[in-house]
Amino acid sequence: MTCVNKIYEDQGQPRVEDVNQFPAVERRRNSAVPSEQREAGEVAIFQELGKALTSSLQLDQVLRTIMEKIDEFLRPDNWSLLLLDEAKQELYFELAVGKASQALKDVRVKMGQGIAGWVAQHGETVVVPDTSKDTRFFSKVDEKTKTETQSIVAVPVRFRDTCLGVIELINCIGPEGFDPRDLKLLEALSDFAAIALENARHVKRIHELTITDDCTSLYNARHMGFILETEIYRSQRYNYEFSIVFIDLDHFKQVNDTHGHLVGSRLLAEIGNSLKSHCRLIDFAFRYGGDEFVILLPQTSKENALNVARRLHKLIRGTKWLMPDGLSVRVTPSLGVASYPVDARTKEGLLHLADEAMYLVKNTNRDSVAAANVGILADTVAVPETHVELYPDDQPILGTKENLQEKFERRREGE
Description:
By secondary structure, this protein is α+β, with helices and mostly antiparallel strands. The chain has 2 domains: about 1-210, Beta-Lactamase (2-Layer Sandwich); about 220-380, 2-Layer Sandwich (Alpha-Beta Plaits). About 40% of the residues lie in helices and about 25% in strands. The chain has 11 helices and 16 strands. It has helices at about 35-55, 60-75, 115-120, 140-145, 180-210, 220-240, 250-260, 260-275, 300-320, 345-360, 400-410; strands at about 1-10, 15-20, 80-85, 90-95, 110, 125-130, 150-160, 160-170, 240-250, 285-290, 290-300, 335-340, 370, 375, 385-390, 395-400. The strands form 3 sheets. Strands 1, 2, 3, 4, 5, 6, 7 and 8 form an 8-stranded antiparallel β-sheet that branches. Strands 10-11-9-12-13-14 form a 6-stranded mixed β-sheet, with helices on both faces. A two-stranded antiparallel ribbon has the order 15-16. β1 (about 1-10) and β2 form a beta hairpin.
């Protein structure tokens, strides 16, 4: 049996999934097939691929059709679709067909390395009847897969002037060479693959735009609602705890008034990036709106979440921001923490309690951390000095950070 495998990313770790099985058949197309029958078959391929491209934005469906047609018409021993990792300038195996496919899942080829790397770098088709006579051949892949590559046909997958990857056929050249019509067919299939890949990139980008905040590149409030519901379901099912931290920047309006809104936006972006960099891989950072951020901490108890909130409080208030811009902006944050299930079991309940805890800090003296059903944490209050704060009724409350909360609670109760 010839196994067709798809390599895809799962939280940054590639893994292989069997997606189809083909019967063990002769690996060379019968050259005695009448010309009319062959042409009809090629037309059918293009019709099928055209329908797949116009009826679905799912990359898997189009690539599966392409790999089936390559196997059906060209019959290589092995073939693969390598895609370019632009950040690392390396090719990785997105699809691999044949006995050695499992061994290719972790293999990466640098741009310019081997036949595939050369094709990706130069954007030109290469036909190599005898790899032993081509200095570009990279033998380490054979060593990894325990196979013997005798011939290679490699075509670039190009969209306009950009090379997205390479389709590579192994051991498909017969004694009479590689049929020029087969090469034209392969190049046409690579064009279809390029269109499918570019469509998938556009769809991914559009999806990212719908869930990402433009200013900070963090997730937005809309996506926060979805992630929070997902985390509640997961925590209910597996009996996990999780916590959320609300963060509001104190007197942020003064930054805009003093330095302008462009500087304010850069400050939000810099703080957002810093928050994200101080999160674990499983955590989520959101811009909730304005100068408010939310951190979701999966599988984190309330006690541990409070420790995280303390660290973030120290990080924000202790950093001089926008130093590369020649500024030295200092801001303080007000933070509120709520946890599932000890504080609430619903999305609305958690958001309300974390927001309420944060506003307890802001309506007291700012620059501290508060927890739902606990109050302001004494160890996050910086210096016990006298302050004047105005409340909704515009009547000042005079006191220290230690007793302002108590005074505010009495006023709210009408004392």
